[in-house]
Amino acid sequence: MTLTRLSPDRLRAAREAAGYSPEAAAELTGCSRATVYNAESGATTPRADTLARWARLYGVTQESLFEGHGDEGTQPAQS
pLDDT band at residue 58, thresholds of 50, 70 and 90? Predict the structure, then answer.
């Protein structure tokens, strides 16, 4: 399987499934609201450390947020 690029739709779906607003996600992970909105719209790609913080907050793997990962985009990460 090849992970091609970050999926804005999976990123947004993971945030929503975890119950966070864009504002809350930004505040809790130390980034700006614009960073969240831009990543979820596909306008920009977040830095690796930002993506890692979002994945942890949303309870998903980073890989699940990329295209080519199957349908697991919003499934909780295994502990």
Answer: very high
